[in-house]
Amino acid sequence: MKVILLQELKGKGGEGDVVDVAAGFANNYLFRQNIAIPATKGNLKQLEQRKHNIAKREENRVADATKMKETLDGALIKVVAQVGDEGQLFGSVTSQMIAEALKESTGIEVDKRRIELGQAIKTAGEHEVSISIYRTIKTTVKLRVVGSEDELVETVVEEDVEVVEETPEAPEAPEADAPAEETAE
């Protein structure tokens, strides 16, 4: 069944593309989620009229994706996880954890579904993670997985410690207004 995509569908195409998909997929998912419409003569005619606007939006998306790629390319991201004795993690680092760390360190919000983990990250240390930003635009970031104790040590070392010189205090002199002690004889 031929459909016209209203937004990007990973592996199939982008907005305005006419693609061939299974009828069940189109009826049960694409039409219900407003991701696509049927490729009828009327819809194809409307698509031709909207091609100019779609091309402008596509150009903006590619420019934004390229800018994001330049920002993220080779970035170092730290993820804090529970680490066992020999560097093994309790569980694994998820794409959700990586997305949150990206937002925290760079300020860029990346959808967790765009983060491509080849295999589960289950050890502490540095790993490379690929991020599919838009269609064929991809980048790689370095991920450093540390335990919570390691993180605390690193932040203490990294902080600028301000040294304040203390002046020696003079011995306190008795106050003049203080009443003198009376001695009873």
Automatic annotation (TrEMBL):
Ribosomal protein L9 domain span: 13-40
GO molecular function per UniProt: rRNA binding; structural constituent of ribosome
Biological-process GO terms, alphabetical: translation
Originating species: Enteroscipio rubneri
Keyword Ribosomal protein: yes
Region (Disordered): 161-185
InterPro entries in UniProt: Ribosomal_bL9, Ribosomal_bL9/RNase_H1_N, Ribosomal_bL9_bac/chp, Ribosomal_bL9_C, Ribosomal_bL9_C_sf, Ribosomal_bL9_N, Ribosomal_bL9_N_sf
NCBIfam families the UniProt entry points to: L9 (TIGR00158)
UniProt-listed PROSITE patterns: RIBOSOMAL_L9
Protein name listed in UniProt: Large ribosomal subunit protein bL9
Keyword flag Iron: no
Lineage: Bacteria, Bacillati, Actinomycetota, Coriobacteriia, Eggerthellales
Family: Belongs to the bacterial ribosomal protein bL9 family.
Cellular component GO terms, alphabetical: ribonucleoprotein complex; ribosome
Protein purpose: Binds to the 23S rRNA.
Keyword list, A-Z: Ribonucleoprotein, Ribosomal protein, RNA-binding, rRNA-binding
Name of the gene: rplI
